[in-house]
From TrEMBL:
Keyword annotations from UniProtKB, A to Z: Membrane, Transmembrane, Transmembrane helix
Organism: Mucilaginibacter agri
Transmembrane segments: 18-38, 44-63
Keyword Transport belongs to the record: no
Protein name in UniProt: DUF58 domain-containing protein
Chain ranges of the DUF58 domain: 209-349
Signal peptide range in chain numbering: none
InterPro entries: DUF58
Length: 448
C-alpha cells in the first residue's frame, strides 16, 4: 500500500491552470472580506474547483495504463550524421488528452530541451520524429521516456514512465557510406559534386572497337578500322580491377583539432569508410592502416563481402594520441604490409613547411613503390580571417599572419608536387567528395 501511494504521489503533477484557479479563489476571498454580500461567491468557486480537481484526478487514473509509448531507433548511430529517432505514442483514454513527452537522450548531446507536445484522441497513434547528430564515437546511453498526460480540465498531469533504457554504439559515418553506395549504383554521384569519370581501361584484355569521342586516348586509335569506316575508331580495353587501395590515417595530436563538433580524425575516419566502400563497389581491394607514434591497426587489402564491416569495427575503436607521427614507422609498416603497387591515401594535417620537411624523406620513399596521395586540411578559420577586410592596425596584423599561414599551406602542396607526390588540400566538410573525385581521376588515368 505504501509503495502504491508513493508511486501515485511521484507521478502526480499540478498544472498551471490549477494554480491560476487557486489565485482567482484567493482574490475572490479577499474581495469578500471587504464586501460581505460578495462572500458566497468565493466559497462556491472554491468548492467547484475542489470538485473539478477530484473529477480530473478520477478521469486520469480511471485506467491503469492510459498511454502506450516506445522509442524507435536503429541498433547503432552514425557519427557526424543526422540520425532519425521516432517516438511512437498511443492513447487508450476515451477522451482527448494533451500529452507532453520528455526523452532522456544521452548526456553527450548536452540537450535539456527534448520536449514534445501533442494531442491524442481515443486510440489515436502518432509517431514523433526528431534528429540527433553525434560527434564522437563510442557508447551512448538512452534513458526513459517520460509522458505527461492532462485531461481537458487541465488541472492535473499524470506521468507515465516507460523503461526504454538502451546503450547504442556510435560508429563512423555508415549513413554517408550507404548514401554514396546508392548514388554510385544509380549513377547519381554528380548530384553531390562527385565527378564519376567513365574511362575504359588500358589493360591487356581487349574489349571492343568503338567510335572515337573527345577525351579518348589518341594512342588507342585503330587505324585499320578507321580506314574502313571513314571515321576515327579506337580500341577499348576492360578496366583493371582488384587494385589495392589503402587508407592510412594519422592519429597524432595534429588530428585533434575540432571543426563543427567533429575532430579532424573523425572526418578522416568517416571519409576512409566511404572511400573503402566506393573502392569495393568498383571491385578494388580496400585496406586500412592507422599510425601515430606507435603502429595502430593494420588490415590487409581485401574485397570479401564482410571486409567493410571489419574496417568499420576497427575504425570505431580508434582514438587520437598526443604525440607526433613516427613517419619512419609508417614507411616500414607500408613496406612490410603492401606486397604490390597500391594507392595509398594518407589522411593527415600538415600545418607548416617545417613539419613537412620532417616527413618528406619518408613520404618520398613511399612514393617510389606506391602511388601516394596526401590528404590534409585547410584551416577554415584562418582562411576566413584572411579574407576579412582589416579595419585597424591590430586587424591588419592579424590578417597578415592569417594570410601567411594560408599561403604556407599552398606552398606545402607545391612542395609535394615538386617531389611527384599527389596531394589534396581540402576543408573538412568537402573531404569525402574531394577524395572520391581524386580516386576516380586516378582510376581513369590508370596510374595505380
Amino acid at each position: 500500500m505504501k509503495t502504491f501511494f508513493t508511486k501515485f504521489y511521484k507521478n502526480l503533477f499540478l498544472n498551471r491552470r490549477l494554480f491560476a484557479g487557486l489565485a482567482i479563489s484567493s482574490l475572490l476571498f479577499l474581495i469578500g472580506f471587504f464586501f460581505p454580500w460578495f462572500s458566497i461567491i468565493p466559497v462556491v468557486f472554491f468548492y467547484a474547483l475542489i470538485i473539478l480537481l477530484i473529477l480530473d484526478l478520477w478521469v486520469l487514473y480511471s485506467l491503469k495504463q492510459g498511454i502506450i509509448a516506445t522509442r524507435q531507433i536503429a541498433d547503432k548511430l552514425s557519427n557526424g550524421d543526422e540520425n532519425e529517432i521516432g517516438i511512437v505514442i498511443k492513447s487508450l483514454y476515451t477522451f482527448k488528452v494533451d500529452v507532453g513527452i520528455i526523452d532522456e537522450i544521452p548526456f553527450q548531446f548536452q540537450k535539456r530541451d527534448v520536449w514534445f507536445q501533442t494531442t491524442l484522441k481515443h486510440l489515436q497513434q502518432q509517431i514523433i520524429p526528431y534528429m540527433l547528430r553525434p560527434t564522437k564515437r563510442g557508447e551512448y546511453e538512452f534513458g526513459n521516456l517520460l509522458v505527461y498526460v492532462s485531461s481537458p480540465l487541465g488541472l492535473l498531469s499524470r506521468r507515465y514512465v516507460f523503461n526504454e533504457s538502451k546503450v547504442l554504439p556510435v560508429y563512423p559515418a555508415f549513413l554517408q557510406m550507404r548514401k554514396y553506395e546508392l548514388m554510385a549504383i544509380s549513377n547519381r554521384l554528380n548530384e553531390i559534386g562527385i565527378k564519376k569519370i567513365r574511362r575504359f581501361g588500358n589493360s591487356a584484355e581487349f574489349e571492343q572497337i568503338k567510335n572515337y569521342v573527345p577525351g579518348d586516348d589518341y594512342r588507342t586509335i585503330n587505324w585499320k578500322a578507321t580506314a574502313r569506316k571513314g571515321e576515327f575508331m579506337v580500341n577499348s580495353y576492360i578496366e583493371e580491377k582488384s587494385q589495392h587501395v589503402y587508407c592510412v590515417i594519422d592519429k597524432s595530436r595534429v588530428m585533434k583539432m575540432p571543426f563543427e563538433g567533429l575532430s579532424l580524425l573523425d572526418y578522416a575516419i568517416n571519409s576512409s569508410l566511404v572511400l573503402s566502400s566506393v573502392a569495393l563497389f568498383k571491385e578494388d581491394k580496400a585496406g586500412l592502416i592507422t599510425i601515430s607514434d606507435k603502429k595502430g591497426a593494420v588490415i590487409p587489402a581485401d574485397n570479401r563481402p564482410t571486409h567493410l564491416n571489419k574496417i568499420m569495427e576497427v575504425l570505431y575503436r580508434e582514438k587520437t594520441r598526443y604525440l607526433e607521427t613516427n613517419t619512419e614507422l609508417l614507411y616500414n609498416t607500408i613496406r612490410h604490409t603492401l606486397k604490390q603497387r597500391s594507392l595509398v591515401v594518407y589522411f593527415t594535417n600538415i600545418e607548416s613547411l617545417s613539419a613537412l620537411k620532417r616527413q618528406l624523406p619518408f613520404l618520398k620513399q613511399i612514393s617510389k613503390f606506391h602511388l601516394l596521395l596526401v590528404v590534409f586540411f585547410e584551416n577554415t578559420s584562418l582562411k576566413t580571417l584572411s579574407e576579412t577586410p582589416a579595419k585597424d592596425v591590430a586587424s591588419i596584423y592579424t590578417k597578415t599572419i592569417a594570410e601567411k599561414f594560408v599561403y604556407e599551406k599552398k606552398q606545402i602542396v607545391k612542395e609535394l608536387n615538386n617531389h611527384g607526390i599527389q596531394s589534396i588540400l581540402t576543408s573538412p566538410q568537402n573531404l569525402t567528395v574531394n577524395t572520391i573525385n581524386t580516386y576516380f581521376q586516378i582510376k581513369a588515368a590508370q596510374k595505380i
